[in-house]
Structure prediction request, 367 residues.
Amino acid sequence: MVFKRLLGSIGVGAPTVDTVLEGGAVQPGGVLRGQVQLQGGQADFTIQSITLELVARVGAPGTGGGDGKNLTVFDRGVVAENFTLPRGALNSVPFELTLPWQTPITELYGQPLGVELGVRTELAIAAARDGGDLDMFAVGPLPAQEAVLEALGQEGFGFAAAALVPEALPGTGQQMPFYQEFDLVPPERFAHRVAELEMTFLPNPRGVEVVLEADKRAGTLPPGHPAGILREVLPHDPAGRDWNAEVVGWVTRLLEGREAALTQFAGGMMPGMQQPGMMPGAHPGMQPGMPGMHPGMQPGMQPGMQPGMAQQQRRGPGVGTAVAAGAAGLAAGVVGGMMVNQMMDGFSGDEEADDGGDDGGDDGGDE
Prediction:
């Protein structure tokens, strides 16, 4: 995709810039290649620098991540410096950008996940800088990521959403100012134990760290409680492993640990959770004097709920529209339209339609 733009902030008669990306989807840690094509203006211009910024639209579902805001720069590189662009001349500057290992995945088996990444070209001429438009690019999964997602789909887990969350995951190898979270709907055999699973991949040059959480937004355990989180470190080469058995084992261990903690919680306060006047066994957030949880309550249930209500309460419109991915793998859910509530207006819809609307005011921060 090519975006052509007159550098309006530099003045009338300024050069125009095309940014052209080569090839299809790249992988985290891979190389993004392309060319910055310059068309000289009505005079000679001294180009101080051409800088490329990797930009992500960050925001969990429901937080405005798809409204054209929340653009975050997660990497940048200078591809050319200090040269003269003669009047009317054509100049092409090839570039190669190595993506960070924790660059989010934007597609699975060619199907978009609703996560948007772009390259922004910044041209510096004299005292002026122009941020340019955004050229969207695609990132596919690493082999280990694909193996895990495929196994989850084959085991009946449905895809609800993929979002970039602007937070930190304590105790992990997170290197970016955000992390990508996959929200998964459990199959029937786990549905009575958990309403939603949240999974994050944190690749690095040695392998892939997987973080799995259960109902983390339901408030059944304190945030960051070790019983609510499972971490695994995988090699980059997925060959020779029974991934279906592994992912089922992860989920089983996570839920067993969480249920043991909840049972302990039902009989008394967890360390660090007691509040003045709170009854033993009370749910976090309950007012003093409210009845506590009893051992028969399901994870995520509030006092007075009937069995099954907790899961119905957790499954909002985003999850309710998800289609369980069957033997064809998790990608079947993407093809089936699980992303109907994800923003799909993309960079190509916002910036390309408004040629010159991005005047470079977003200098390394949110737009």
